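BUG-251 | component: ligand-complex export | severity: low

The export step for adenosine-5'-triphosphate jobs runs without errors, but we want the raw record kept on the ticket for reference. Input record follows.
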Amino acid sequence: MVAALEISGLKVLYGQAIEALDGVSITVPDGGFVALLGANGAGKSTTLKAISGLLRFENGRIAEGTIKYRGEDIAAIPSYQLARRGILHVREGRFVFPTMTVEENLEASLFARGKRGPALARRVYEEVFHYFPALKERAKSQAGYLSGGEQQMLAIGRALFAQPELLMVDEASLGLAPKIAADIFTILDKISNDRKLSILVVEQNVTLALRHAAYGYVLENGRIVSEGESQKLLDRDSLSRRYLGGGANAH
Ligand SMILES: Nc1ncnc2c1ncn2[C@@H]1O[C@H](COP(=O)(O)OP(=O)(O)OP(=O)(O)O)[C@@H](O)[C@H]1O
């Protein structure tokens, strides 16, 4: 079976000299839930930016390797075209339009897929609100007044509104209370199962990510140093020592 996403031997440079990734290979099966883990600066965000065509806005480029989506090399396709094909990237930092309402934020994302129309919008509102009932209650509120957790839900809800086929979420748990972060991962899990949506998350919270993803990769200094089924990764001594040793990520 063709994987949803297949990255092979990816090398990324920023400017002429800064090597952010070196030989990264990652597979996301169709309908699979995969986590990309690692400390600050390991290259997690760079990997997602390479997939969604955002590197060029940061003077970054793919020097070697391929990124295939459903068998087709997408490395040279601009980000807006990738979004139309259903490759959606929820960037770190909960990008929402603060002065627009929740509904308006959601509606704006339909343009990402080049689709519009009230019937479609109504259908997708119901779908997003089904997964994020908290957003329904705040539908008429300005996004800037939502809590951090609600803003993260809105950022993911916006991507969902654009009917993704591959959803990438960068640091969904960042700055959130453990309960809210866990809720968000539970919802991602449910969406992945219900809709056969392929999901790739980037996380520093290893335990949380591996509790939900089926498979994980660990990045260190731009290279994959470990990979495997989530439970096996969690059991692996070295990983536990390095990332789960009672630190901030161990909840
Ligand atoms: N726009 C950029 N220009 C130059 N170097 C960059 C740029 N973005 C990232 N880097 C460098 O590339 C490496 C990987 O960064 P990246 O942001 O991908 O890591 P990360 O694992 O996502 O970390 P974080 O969790 O802090 O976001 C780092 O050494 C970083 O300093």
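Assignee comment: Attached the raw record above. Residues 218 and 225 are 6 Å apart (CA to CA).
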